[in-house]
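STRUCTURE REQUEST FORM
Protein name: Alkaline/neutral invertase
Source organism: Arabidopsis suecica
Requested output: structure tokens
Priority: standard
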Amino acid sequence: MSAIYLLRKISTKTPSRFHRSLFFSTFSKESKPDSSRTNSIRHLSSQRFVPSSIYRFPQSKILPNRKFSTSVETNLNDKSFERIHVQSGAILERIHKNEEEETVSKVNVGSEKVVREESEAEKEAWRILENAVVRYCGSPVGTVAANDPGDKMPLNYDQVFIRDFVPSALAFLLKGEGDIVRNFLLHTLQLQSWEKTVDCYSPGQGLMPASFKVRTVALDENTTEEVLDPDFGESAIGRVAPVDSGLWWIILLRAYGKITGDFSLQERIDVQTGIKLIMNLCLADGFDMFPTLLVTDGSCMIDRRMGIHGHPLEIQSLFYSALRCSREMLSVNDSSKNLVRAINNRLSALSFHIREYYWVDIKKINEIYRYKTEEYSTDATNKFNIYPEQIPPWLMDWIPEQGGYLLGNLQPAHMDFRFFTLGNFWSIVSSLATPKQNEAILNLIEAKWDDIIGNMPLKICYPALEYDDWRIITGSDPKNTPWSYHNSGSWPTLLWQFTLACMKMGRPELAEKALAVAEKRLLADRWPEYYDTRSGKFIGKQSRLYQTWTVAGFLTSKLLLANPEMASLLFWEEDYELLDICACGLRKSDRKKCSRVAAKTQILVR
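Status: completed
Returned output:
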């Protein structure tokens, strides 16, 4: 990667009345903004849109040296990782690039692999994906959630969702098309600073939107302008903030740099600030006693009431991945060193917590079956006061001898024994689970193939909530009836995450087998969003057709299997330095003992 950074031309065009400034942290002296440019930009905070004449930081402001935050330095009593100070008046740079500006480097994946003929399903999938591209002022900025020509009421399926775009972005990157991903990352970063208010209350500053839509707004009688209209959850069902959006954004930012080799994007001051804002929001002190993120129901892919409030595995695995990404991408300096230290400490505590307390196999279930309750001591075995009666009857016969998985949720007096697919896959990809746990998860899927894969991969969770559980936990949700939608429906988009997990563990044949099952039906069924019934036999009763992330998940799986060297860029190996960090300060205490020290040997080898 060249270390030469080109100066971009500074536009003097007067911004429209729809401009809104971005928020950035206070700059260091070395990167102090040009006040003459700052004063030339009007700040109109009352507007709710991002206009077409957007500006960004000049490339000359990029930090010249890449200093990765791989330090594992800890500080037991230092919780004051930096506060990001908000200021108005942004120095921005024009989005549109001309021939004299720096171009994004691309990886010609095709030149590194044996050329193979695409199947009819792949050709049709690429056509659908390209037709789903959303353009903003002539430039691609994302893909709509679904593009069904027969759907007369698309609701919000005509918007660009951050989580939905990730498989589309990877498909484009693996094909050598990076511009749409770069544009998406920068535009969503600009939306991060918008006011987000529900009933006069605003959430944290680093929150990323769930989605955005390109709208045309009249400036006067004869002039219109394209604007971006974000949704931070204030229009969502249940008004739930999308906790996973910022985590996916960070994961995609790292993937963009890894695949294209263009690390200049993550080194930009505005991008560095965006990472810091998300991390500060996630790492803020609270009342919780655990390193896991505490969230409400419906704050991730499962965006309706499904009993995942608390500490769901999906959020924890994405959180861990985002922490590892941030640790790689953050430039280490005086303004970021406290944040980097906090990230290292959280990574260490989170990995221990998940590996030790979320893991279940037949041995662990037998241990829980014999738990004593109401233990009041610092060295209690049943730390969360779990009652053995919570073990569901189906689990006793379902768990295989050679397999295991990570619980769906854990909090005081509550274990959710459902198998949640996305969380377990990302625990493999990010090395949140141990190598042996990773192998056991894939062993379980292989042993329970008919339950998890069936006629259409993959179950979003297993098993379904039925009868009184469905009525009480979902509130009798008519969309989440048993074996439908988020209540154990089958989601083909999960194929790419399964593929990545299998390739990391050296078992691509499992992914190929699942992909072959999906390819038999997806084209004929017109690429549904999800499938219903216990085995995934029927198209979902409310499933949208031509669902973009179904198409993109299929294509990304194909590309990953065809390009294992590219797949290796997207997952993490075990980081043994993180396992040595312990910031609890109990090692020299006579009153308490560090549970991590006692469990360390089994955590490393389990």
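Reviewer notes: Confidence is low (pLDDT under 50) at residues 1-113, 601-606. The two ends are 39 Å apart (CA to CA).
Form closed.
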